[in-house]
Amino acid sequence: MTDETVETVRENPRKVREGIVISDKMASTVVVAVNERVSHPRYGKTVQRTKKLYAHDEKNEAKVGDRVRVVETRPLSKLKRWRLTDIVERAR
Asked: Above 70 in pLDDT, residue 7?
């Protein structure tokens, strides 16, 4: 491999999550609720866990209820570690 191909290959791909916007009151920031289904360690039953992610929304285009896709990024503030990539579905 040459030096220029080493730079373009990403060792760990960025995490991508899909969730629903639950707040858009901050400037350039949305709060996205991401649900994940996890098997309980002891009982094996599938349980839902909700995680709130703070995502950077440069153009303030996402509104409450929209289904959005976010991607992991460098820390942008104390809580923001995600960036809005696209709006999958608009709220009705």
From this structure: no
